[in-house]
Design goal:
By secondary structure, this protein is mainly α. Helix content is 68%, strand content 4%. The chain contains 17 helices and four strands. A four-stranded mixed sheet has the order 1-2-4-3, sandwiched between helices. Helix 1 runs antiparallel to helix 2 and helix 10 packs across helix 14. The structure holds zinc ion (ZN). The site of zinc ion has 4 residues, from helix 10 and helix 14.
Length: 458
């Protein structure tokens, strides 16, 4: 076995052991913690606490299972040289299906790479399907979160697959073209190209998201007025406020702001708004005696479920936190950090992509396809990716504190606190964490950390 290959395998197992160890530490916390921390004692009832424990234990056990399966899969892929196998398979597919014969041109490489991307995506989707189905229809279902029907799930998977292929195909083609034609400094052009792609994806995030979920403009009412007033007050370039029908998918709740420049939008999950009913659904199914009003001040106690979601004050506090991310340019800081990484990775790639030892170690003896070179490089750079992920997590946690502090400065600390607790309850988050696990895994500070930070007097 070549040292490149044995190195990649060793590193991936070391990281797997480390990740599993961290998960185990958190698992122990789930099992052993019998009491709520003092600041939450009167806010979360015992029943909810036990439910969140059961949900968390189920999730982490599933994580152990899917983790080891994934690890064995990737080991088999490398040991049995499945990457060159699929590369050759895509060649044969083109041969048999389209009657094309292989040539050494760039066009051919692009074509074969696209077929390869398609074939490997289909294969990995199929292989991971049982675990994905189990997670949605057994675990999420058991704890009352799954709202998807089998048909919705299948259609959604198909859409995700198609959209990601349609977006990635031209990007893959362009990358190969740039590498092959860009001369000695191709990595700079590649970097510029990827920069533009990332900006475009950020800019059109809303349009892409609309393919998967139903976005309804938040109807006029108290909530909308207050959000618009907040935006105007802080000069947030709000273009629209949407409610996304997350409830068709799952009852987990959230809110975010997206888009760039003057095209900023605020998106609120319908599950975040207490008592929210889609106005279209109301007009379809109920008589007109209830005014179509999305403001959640309507008091509908009809549902037998314990009421979920936040009231207007709390939603405003949550959105103020989201606007805090915009105010501190967190998106651009994240982008800048990612761009630095791209530049470094592309520069390393430009040194390595013609190295025959790299390719032959993984079973490519005659060809050195660009797309394969990238895949191999990413495996070799796994420790670097791990480090980059860790720094990104640290960055993201500090941004969360900053956004919370912003909401606090604008007088929303108390409502943000109750909102965070409600969200934690609605999403059945377990409120206690192992420090080491949290340091490496959490992109957000834990509930307790956020409450304490909001309580601190400046
Ligand atoms: Zn945030």
């Amino acid at each position: 076995m070549h040292y490149y290959l044995s190195g990649v395998l060793t590193i991936s197992w070391v990281f797997w052991i480390w990740g599993t160890y961290l998960d185990y530490r958190q698992y122990r916390v789930y099992v052993r913690t019998k009491k709520l921390p003092s600041e939450l004692e009167d806010k979360i009832d015992v029943d909810t606490f036990e439910k969140s424990r059961a949900y968390s234990i189920d999730k982490v056990r599933f994580g152990f299972l899917s983790g080891i399966i994934g690890q064995i899969q990737s080991t088999l892929v490398l040991c049995f040289f499945l990457i060159p196998y699929f590369w050759e398979l895509s060649n044969q597919l083109m041969n048999k299906t389209f009657g094309f014969t292989k040539s050494g041109t760039i066009e051919w490489e692009i074509f074969q790479s696209l077929v390869f991307t398609f074939v490997t995506s289909v294969a990995s989707t199929l292989v991971n399907l049982p675990l994905s189905i189990y997670s949605t229809f057994v675990i999420e279902q058991r704890h009352g979160f799954n709202k998807q029907t089998a048909a919705f799930y299948a259609w959604d998977k198909l859409k995700k697959f198609s959209v990601s292929f349609i977006i990635s195909a031209p990007v893959v083609a362009a990358i190969i073209y740039i590498v092959r034609n860009g001369g000695p400094y191709f990595f700079l052009y590649l970097w510029l190209f990827c920069f533009v792609v990332v900006l475009l994806l950020t800019f059109f995030h809303g349009e892409i998201a609309a393919i998967f979920d139903k976005f309804t403009s938040l109807p006029a009412g108290q909530l909308r007025d207050r959000i618009e007033a907040l935006a105007q007050d802080v000069k947030f370039p709000l273009s629209n406020i949407f409610v996304v029908e997350g409830s068709k998918r799952s009852s987990h709740s959230n809110a975010y702001q997206s888009g760039m420049f003057t095209k900023k939008r605020i998106v609120i999950y319908d599950t975040l708004i207490e008592g929210y009913h889609n106005p279209e659904d109301i007009s379809e199914s109920e008589s007109t005696d209830r005014n179509v009003s999305a403001s959640n001040d309507c008091k509908q106690e009809k549902s037998t479920e314990k009421s979920k979601g936040c009231n207007n004050d709390e939603i405003i506090a949550v959105l103020c936190h989201e606007i805090g991310h915009w105010y501190h340019s967190h998106l651009f800081k994240h982008l800048a950090f990612a761009e630095m990484n791209y530049l470094l990775i592309f520069a390393i790639f430009s040194k390595l992509y013609n190295d025959p030892t790299l390719y032959s170690a993984f079973g490519f003896y005659e060809e050195r396809p660009v797309i394969i070179g990238f895949a191999l490089l990413m495996m070799i750079l796994a420790p670097y990716a791990e480090l980059q992920g860790f720094i990104s997590t640290l960055l993201s946690r500090s941004f969360e504190y900053q956004a919370d502090a912003y909401a606090k400065r604008r007088g929303h600390a108390e409502k943000l606190k109750t909102a965070l607790i409600k969200l934690n309850i609605d999403n059945l988050g377990f409120p206690i964490h192992d420090d080491l696990y949290s340091t490496f895994n959490h992109s957000h500070p834990t509930l307790i950390q956020r409450l304490r930070a909001l309580d601190k007097t400046d």
